[in-house]
Design a protein that fits this description.
Elements: E1 2-5, H1 11-14, H2 17-23, E2 28-30, E3 36-37, H3 39-49, E4 59-61, E5 70-74, H4 82-95, E6 96-97, H5 100-117, H6 121-136, H7 146-150, H8 152-165, H9 173-191, E7 198-200
Antiparallel strand pairs: 1-5, 1-7, 2-3, 2-6, 4-5
Helix pairs in contact: 3-4, 5-8
Length: 209
């Protein structure tokens, strides 16, 4: 598990986190020699190096214990594949490149998922539980935790805006450039965190290893 601090990101940048969680392990990755590994090939390599878990493979997620300023990458691998898996995950984190096509696909999928979740009472209740402490607590402070931002209610409007923008028959190129710049700046800010803001946890099923 790799935990990354987001306390240096602006609110606008943190609004990108839900889609970054969807995108980070499925984007084109630049190799050391300057060549590009297409996202489909990168996803295949990661799938081959990791093993399925309860979360169905590598997962970007919001840690409940550090929900205010962190998000995490969790993956599992066999002992012989662990080094390869870790290398691929870190390459995806630090060398991936956001493109309009990948952002469009992620936003449209997330928007469809959100629409479906809004029809499910348990999903709506869970989202309400996430945001109620912010609405009624914090002595009226306006700061939003990552937990609220990635919740169904927190991400819905922003994700829908991006999905709609990339569905327009007449593209607004300036708006799309600004969206890509925002996501790129968010990713750069995460990558620029000092070493003491990146936490790595390694666990083995066999306590002797």
């Amino acid at each position: 598990t790799v935990l990354l601090s987001t306390d240096g990101l602006s609110l606008e940048q943190r609004m990108c986190l839900p889609l970054l969680c969807d995108l980070l392990l499925s984007m084109d990755v630049e190799s050391d020699d300057g060549s590009c590994i297409p996202y489909a090939e990168m996803s295949r390599l990661i799938d081959e190096a990791t093993v399925s878990t309860d979360a169905s493979g590598p997962l970007m997620y919001q840690p409940s214990a550090m929900q205010i300023d962190c998000f995490g990458i969790h993956f599992a691998a066999t002992e012989e594949n662990f080094g390869r898996a870790a290398d691929l995950i870190l390459r995806a984190l630090f060398n991936s490149k956001i493109t309009g096509d990948r952002l469009s696909s992620a936003a449209k999928n997330a928007d469809a998922d959100s629409t479906e979740s809004l029809r499910d009472g348990s999903s709506v209740l869970h989202a309400a539980v996430q945001v109620l402490p912010t609405i009624f607590g914090n002595n009226g402070e306006s700061s939003l935790s990552n937990e609220v931002i990635v919740s169904l209610f927190g991400r819905r409007k922003f994700v829908t805006f991006i999905a709609d923008e990339y569905s327009r028959e007449s593209p607004r190129h300036r708006t799309r450039r600004k969206i890509l710049q925002l996501f790129s700046s968010s990713l750069r800010s995460i990558r620029a965190q000092p070493a003491d803001k990146i936490f790595v946890q390694v666990a083995a099923r066999d306590p002797g290893k």
